Amino acid sequence: MVSSTTTLITVAPTGAESAKADVPALPVTVEEVVATARDCQALGAAVVHLHVRDAGTRPTLEPARVREVVAAVREATDLVVQLSTGGAVTDPFDARLAVLDAEPDAASLTLGTVNFGHDVFSNPWDLIVELHTQMQQRGIVPEYEVFDLGHLATLARLLDRHGPPHGGHVHVDLVMGVPGGMPGTTQALAACLPHLPPGASFAATGVGRTSLPVMLAALSAGGHLRVGMEDTLTYAPGEPVRDNAQLVARAAGVARIAQRPPMSTGDARAFLGIDLPAHTRTTVEASS
Ligand code: KMH
Ligand code: ZN
Questions:
Q1: Which atom belonging to ligand 1 lies closest to the Cα atom of 87?
Q2: Among 35, 52, 120, 122, which residue's beta carbon has the most beta carbons within 10 A?
């Protein structure tokens, strides 16, 4: 595993599971998502993992809406824009693949089917291969989402049969504590580490009350962090999360205590193998 003197912080502000009516602080409009993204970048986030909502606040993969949100976040921030291809458990595969048409910098790619509470989050091999190869062809960097140890065996098989991702660097997010997936414990995180591909980096996300133990375990193992209201709605026992910025601020603080302060957005692009955003390319080329 590659080591890093800084910490890549990803914010997952919205997700597809919580209803705005139940969680009023959840950012769902374009304006709310942009404001959250801006606040979180100022506090140390370098990547935003986006699920899009429609005008009625429901999860959507509608192409025009997805493009609108990507453009708005790019306009307002320097964050690496990572779209979810996981969507909601009810989303059809073709709509999940079509998310790539919005040309994000990066996209999530889940490496296997997993029980998801009462639902099933379906990710068969053919979908995994299709997402991987389409991202290679389109120059989109995948973040490999691992909900269980066996997903890392699938990653090894995927890279062996279909080659490295665009940019050449393999970055994995261990999504822990989902009911049906691996538990959010130090032991489970440690069990994953020997199975990471050579040279890969990893982040970890602890869902719900596993957020803090997973954060501490990840930092202790040289890993990176994902936080946000997609995964965590309670800041402390009995205390609802105020906003995504609160979660990013806590992650950045703990990363500083670990003497691995937050990674800048520019360093995150280099680290993940992401091309410079189109609107900055000429400036950099002209000034070099
Ligand atoms: N909403 C979950 C069913 C991803 O974004 O790639 C899937 C998910 C993973 O959140
Ligand atoms: Zn997600």
A1: 1
A2: 52
